[in-house]
Design brief:
Helix content: 40-55%
Mean pLDDT: 81
Number of strands: 2
Strand content: under 5%
Low-confidence stretches: 291-313
Shape: globular
Order of helices and strands: HHHHHHEEHHHHHHHHHHHH
Length: 437
Amino acid sequence: MKELICPRSILYNLQPFNLNSGSVESLSSYLIRLAYAHNIAVGSLVNKIIIPRLKKDYLSRSTKYGGNSFFEGAKTMDSFNENALDMVKVLGELTSRNDLNQLTLINFKKKFSNRGLLKDELSWCSECLNEWKWRGENNLYYPLIWHFKLVQICFKHKCLLSNCCENCSNLNPILRRNMHLGYCSYCAYPLFENSKVVNCNFKKEELDWYEFCFLNIEFILKSHLEYFNTSEFINSIFSQNLSENLSLFARITTIPKSTLRGWLRGESVPSLEGLLKICYALNISLSNPSSNSIQIPTNVFTENMTFKKESNIRKPIDVKQIELELNRILNLEVPISMASAAHLIGRNKRVLYGNSPDLCKDISRRYLNYKQTVANNRIENIQSEVEITFFELMSENTFPSRAAIEKRINKPGLLREPRVKVFWQKLINSEVNINDE
């Protein structure tokens, strides 16, 4: 009889969205949904269940003493490094699923390099989220394809992907303790109600490039490129169609000869961008590399890729306009970070610091002070709540233990925070001293 009963999983055997497709769900999105399904915060799921099973000392210390080590490196769980392997293993054991590797890029290890592969922040298509939201709250998720740096547009809605909250102007991280799918991690503003959806006003060459990247990455995620060898693929193109002319190869792909030489010799793994630039310049699709004509005049290759060169041309710096923008940001009711300010202005943070260092420092200082104030207010409110609960329990002749206080407040793990723990211990000690007298 026991043999007929399937082993029970610790967590729900939650089905990932769109397995074996180009719009497969990312592992970080799956983790958020898993927490939501169990009606607990992402931070609680990570700290109480996942980190103990990862058996990483630095993560255990972060859980005990406070820190964001796990969440700061969250983007790596969608990639193919050690963190992704560990997370797939742990979540697979907890949910009894053996297909979670498809929510990462584990299957593409050694096919292309990890450098410049995934974004540091979350990006999303408000139109897609809105469509899924209408089907039900449980249908919201973040596809893995949105995490690729080369994916800047939604091919379906022909609009730019967003990465900045319309309400608070903050860049959203990949993962956070109290994250909810479809909502800003900072102000809880619904990301599916973004009224500032930006259409793709690219030049035709740029739009062609981004659409090419989107469609080929979608194919990569769908097919897994199981028997694809990147080095052999590039060598085949080089020898059969370019007569092993390295200078020509470099010119039509805008990739340095030294880089191409390393890829051809197998000394380094090609980047995904490099692979797609080669395919784009030679009019090849990864879905069917032999179906397109490669015999195209050389000048067509360079014309197709000129926009990549133009995008590197520096925009003229208008110092007065930059200072006006920085002053406006400095006077915002809710301070924002310099990273968010740079994104809003459309300039590199180093450029802003180089031209207006004092204003940038003021913005940064104001934001840090704001964060510190918010953190202090939060701790003070918690301490006040703990103190009230402490004396309520004492009046009921119940010892105000950590478990008793956390149960009464309904916030498990609250007294693990160092400053709150010290405050609670002082209350215990003061009460003991009073009784001794």
